[in-house]
Amino acid sequence: MGIKVCKFGGTSMASGNVILSAAKIVESDSERRYVVVSAPGKRFGGDIKVTDLLYQCSDEIEAGDIAAFKETFGKIRVRFTNIEKEIGKELHIEDGLNEAENEILNGAGRDYCASRGEFLAAKIMAAVLGVPFVDATEFVRFDENGALDQEKTFALGAEVLKQYPRAVIPGFYGLGANGKVKTFSRGGGDISGSIVARSVYANLYENWTDVSGFYVCDPRIVDSPKCIPELTYQELRELSYMGANVLHSESIFPVRSAGIPIRICNTFRPEDAGTYIVKNSTRDIRDYVVTGIAGKKDFTSITLEKSLMNAEVGFVGKVLSVIGKRGISFEHLPSGIDTLSLVIDNEYLKGGVLQEIIDEMVATVNPDKVYTHENIALIATVGHGMAKNVGTSARLFKALSEAGINVNMIDQGSSELNIIVGVESKDYVDCLKAIYNEFFNA
């Protein structure tokens, strides 16, 4: 018998009724033996995710506003007790809530506070399914730098989970090098599911959410886009990083080395086929060119011009050191023989930081000219088929030209897996639509 690991996202844990539906999905297949859950998400438009409330609690504790904390935690308490009522079973959720509240008040810390949504949700799912609860702190380990310690985690995971034929595990957190609860970045529950799948060498990692798979393009922009039946780990990484947020971009790493496929499934439409994410695609690249299109807005490019830049040893390193010491990463680094551009997320450039960076670059490398281009949107066109189909770039840029969109930046990876263009933010939607129509509605 094979092993399937199921991860249920926030919308799949949002209410008692939905949790019962998720439990039925697990019980419908005896191979679904390990379940990883997120904290309860939004039930409706305007609702607040439990994790957001927990971060608010942490902020209020840090500010010393105990009254505000009590009020916010009260909302969390109501949310979980309502879930218990909807399930119609005594789950002793008040005990867990009381413990969490006391620990937070006694200085347990921000990560502990943020993790309690997953902890309590996993307790509930374990009680509904009648299987053991296994805390993620028993095997998920982070190193001194806050990065996942994969070697320790997989070894401990295999040792711990082999004791349980079935189990429910909270996602999103583990144990830091200091012995305290440590969380992943937001959406990190997907990584937790992947860790469990790798630890038990699952045949399949199912990620249950509120969509029926990976769409070619954002359905909020393109009406009824096509669903991608299959994509590779590489394609997922590119699309997720560029804003396709169905699955956390780092969730492939634990399963990739073991070749464990991922399936994106819809909790609300479990009969849908979903999308499979695999090591090597079985699709014939002659039958498709582009796999998906995704993008992000709010970037700034800083361009340096200097004659004989290419002959100046260490030029790029000096430029990157200016942003590196500020903890700033760059998205892309297009260059010419006498020019170099850095594309940076605007989030890093607030409060006069942009001008500080420019001034230091001028002092460090003495360029002939420096100029910036703000309000840039980046759109990635991704697909293994692009490298084998002649004229892909021509089709893409012809589509943008016909739509009246000016391209400010072009960056193509050496693997020819993607073509990234930078356009004005005002052209973002039209750019996505033009590319989609060219490759999927032509």
Please describe the topology of this protein.
Layout: E1 4-8, H1 16-27, E2 32-37, H2 50-62, H3 66-87, H4 93-105, H5 110-129, H6 150-161, E3 167-170, E4 173-175, E5 181-183, H7 189-199, E6 204-209, E7 214-215, E8 227-228, E9 230-232, H8 233-241, H9 252-256, E10 262-266, E11 275-278, E12 292-305, H10 315-324, E13 339-345, H11 353-365, E14 369-382, H12 392-402, E15 407-412, E16 418-424, H13 428-440
Parallel strand pairs: 1-2, 1-6, 2-3, 6-10, 9-11
Antiparallel strand pairs: 4-5, 7-8, 10-11, 12-13, 12-14, 14-16, 15-16
Helix pairs in contact: 1-3, 2-3, 2-5, 3-4, 4-5, 6-7, 10-11, 12-13
Explain this structure.
The model has no long low-confidence stretch (mean pLDDT 92). The chain has helices spanning 16-27, 50-62, 66-87, 93-105, 110-129, 150-161, 189-199, 233-241, 252-256, 315-324, 353-365, 392-402, 428-440, and strands spanning 4-8, 32-37, 167-170, 173-175, 181-183, 204-209, 214-215, 227-228, 230-232, 262-266, 275-278, 292-305, 339-345, 369-382, 407-412, 418-424. The radius of gyration is 24 Å and the shape is globular. It is an alpha/beta fold and 442 residues long.
Short key terms for the protein model shown above:
seven-stranded mixed β-sheet, globular, 442 residues, five-stranded antiparallel β-sheet
